[in-house]
Every structure is written in C-alpha cells, then in structure tokens.
Amino acid sequence: MKQRSPTLEGFRAILVRPSFGLAEIAWRWSFGAAVAVLLGFAFFEYLNTLPVSRGDLLLLQTGQPALVAKAVTHIFRGSGLRVVETAVVLSLTLGFAWVVVASLTRAATIKALVAYFRQIDAPALSFPKKETWGLRALFGLHCFRAITTLAAAVSCLAAFLLGGAATSAGDPSPGSAVLIFLAVVILVWFVWSTLSWFLSLAAIFVVTEGHDTFRALAAAVDLCRTRAGSVFAAGIWFGLAHLTLFVVATSIVAFPLGFAALLPAGVVLGGVLLVTLLYFAVADFLYAGRLAAYVAILELPKTVPTPRVAMSSDGGEHSVSGVRSSAGVDSDELILSDLPATSQ
Fold first, then answer.
1. Where are the domains of the chain?
2. DSSP state, 339?
C-alpha cells in the first residue's frame, strides 16, 4: 500500500473540499463582526454618558489645540471606572460567547473531517470508534484557551508597565524600556501560541475518541511523543505557508500605500482593506488545512510492509521482506518527513 503524507492530505483536503475553509471563515468572521458591532455600540453608549458643559463646548469650538485638549481632559475626567466596568463586562460576555460558538463549530468541523478521511479509507481505519460531539470537554478546552488569552493580555500590560518602570524623567532610557517590553511580549506570545496550539490539538481527541478534557490533553501529549515527526512536519509546512502568505500580503499592500499621494484616500483605504480581507481568508483556509492534517495523522491507515512469498529454484518457498519505494517518490523529501517509518 502506498504511504500518504498527512501534510499533503491536509493541503489536498482544503483544495478538494473548500467547504472546510469556508466554514472556518463563516464562523470566525461572523463572530468577529458581532464583536465589532457590540464594541461600537458600547463605545457610543459610553460617549453618551460623558457630561459636556457649555464651557467645554466653547473650548471645543475655538479649534485651538491647547483649548481643545483642556476640554477633552475635563470631559473624560473621572470616567476611568466606567471604562474598566465596561471592559470587564464585555470581556466576560464575549469570552463566554466565544467558548460556546468555538466549541460547537470545532465539533462540527472535526466530525466533517473525520467523515471525509473515513470515506476515503473506509476499509482500514486507525480509530474505528464512532465520533461524538463531546461538548462538555470542548467547553473545558476552550475555557482554558480563553483563560490563557486573558493571562497573555494581562502579561502584555504588565510588560508595558515594567518597561515604563525602567525609565524615568530624571534618568530617561527609552531604549531599555522598549527592549524590556519587546522581550516580555515575544516570550508571552510564544507561550500563549504554544498552549493555544496544544489545546486545539487536544480537541480532536474529544470528537474522535470521546475523551474528557484532561484525557484529551493526555492523548495530545502521547500523539506528540509517538508521532512527533508527523505532527511537527504539518505544523512547520503550514507555518511556512502562512509566513509566505504574510510576506506576499504585506508586499501587495505596499502598492496602494506607495500611490497614497496620487490616488484618493478612499481608493487607497479600499485596496488595503481588500488585501487584508484576502489575507485573513487564506489564513483561515490554512488553519483548516492544518487541522485536517492532524486529523489525517489519526485517521489514515499506517502502512506496514507485508512479506512477499517467492518460489525458489528448488521449488521451495522463501519470504522476501521489505517494500520497494514507489517510482518517482523520494523518501528523503522534507514534505514526506511526516510519513510513518517502515522497517527494512
């Protein structure tokens, strides 16, 4: 049986079945649009609570920067508590909504991917168990992801305060402040992205195996230990594809920005917005493809070489072990490094 690369199967899945990527775009963009509308509504409601006196109106109408700044300072004075209260309420509400929506959509996506791969390889399944929704376990995993995101945001704020503490008016050191801030933010981003990736990987075992939250985490650790080559090959190749997409998108954005002095502002802004939307759309397709590659690691049958029996010259039988490599396939190719090793 010809071995198949889970990484290639992940890319093939989003090309053959673009509905996987479109489903990812649908729920992410719908939730993002709802968040944007809610934040805009909260912002305008907050502005309506600010008291504006006649003196503030007179200062604003002067158009003088110093007087306008004084009026704005007076208007926003004492409103910090309302900002904090609004931020807390919105964070809790949106966090809970994201946990519910992400859990439901992730269960549906993984079930569709499992059905896709099992339809291809119906005779031999790595995991013949019937997949389940496992919403309670998915809620737990996405709660952990929400908590890690909140911790990352607080850590970035702490990094900003730590960088500010490294400089003072008497002994200014902006370089040290920026260096401390960037170092802490990069470390926080690395830890957060690693934990988020690991939790998203554990969600596959909830649907395919019916594990609870902590058993799914243990299964993800075991997968990274036993199939490290396949898991990291998929992550690296899809990561390189995402990096290439980012470089191409930023290069294309430079064109409308380069003609900003000649073209109308609406045209430049529209071009930048269009490229940005296309970037996020392709990035969501790549995310769906990477998820498909991880599902393929579990669902694709492992190819094991079977001994062949040949007739000897004296009429007896002897076994010939090993499988000849397919013509035109180089087993040392990096894209095939996620194939399971075969004994020789």
1. 6-129+229-303+317-336
2. S
Check if the beta carbon of residue 109 is closer than 8 Å to that of residue 20.
yes
Residue whose entry in the numeric block shows the structure tokens 């409308």: 256
Q: What angle do CA 191, 192, 196 make, to 5 degrees?
A: 120
Q: Between vectors from CA 296 to CA 293 and to CA 302, what angle results, nearest 5°?
A: 130
Q: Is the pLDDT of residue 291 over 90?
A: yes
What is the token pair recorded at 107? Answer: 């269960």
Q: Is the Cβ–Cβ distance between 187 and 231 less than 8 Å?
A: no
Rounded to 5 degrees, what are φ and ψ at 318? -145, 150
**Residue 280: closest CA among 253, 254, 257, 256:** 253
* Predicted confidence (pLDDT) per residue in 25-47, tens digit: 999 999 999 999 999 988 888 88
Of 150-154, 225-229, 297-301, give the lowest mean pLDDT range. Answer: 297-301
Q: What pLDDT does residue 3 have?
A: 67
**How confident is the model over 269-295, as a mean pLDDT?**
93
Helix (H, G, I), strand (E, B) or coil at 131: coil
